[in-house]
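Entry type: protein chain
Record version: 2
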Amino acid sequence: MYMTIKKIAIVCACLLMFTSCLEQELVLNINKNGKANLKYSVIVEDTYAGEEAQIAVWGMVNSFPELKDNYTIEKKAIDDGGYFNNKTAYEFSNNDLVDLKSNQNIDFYEKDGVYWFEMKIPSLEIDNDDDDEVIYSLTITLPKEIEMATTSRFSSNRATWKIHKSDLKTGMVLKAFTVK
């Protein structure tokens, strides 16, 4: 299942070239056994990158045919009320649960009734333009209410991190743990 997350990461990396024209989100709904439903979304503004994103998604699906077997890929139109604000969302959802324990960058375990999540994001060599630009967001849902996370965006059993370009330059570790 490590290959499953790796393939989504490849899709993400390939689409990074459009970062100023798109939003990316990875959602992991993690159960108590450390297995997760995974949803990766790319939302593009049609007037800026609609065709390029469609070609990139088509290229990824045809380059990795197993994506068709292991994921549901859905294209959704989003109307924000004006010609320049129309967007398209491409959503990849896994058909089988992903075992996070087999991922080298994610640690998930339970100890004394507390669930612990840790994800290492390695550094990446990228240009210096617009360090504050949000590259993607990561949202996790844990089996119990979150006690603490390395983000201020958490409530109940859900935490969200906004990953900026500057974060990718230095690498980072995302952490969360639940109440007992």
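Comment: The two ends are 29 Å apart (CA to CA).
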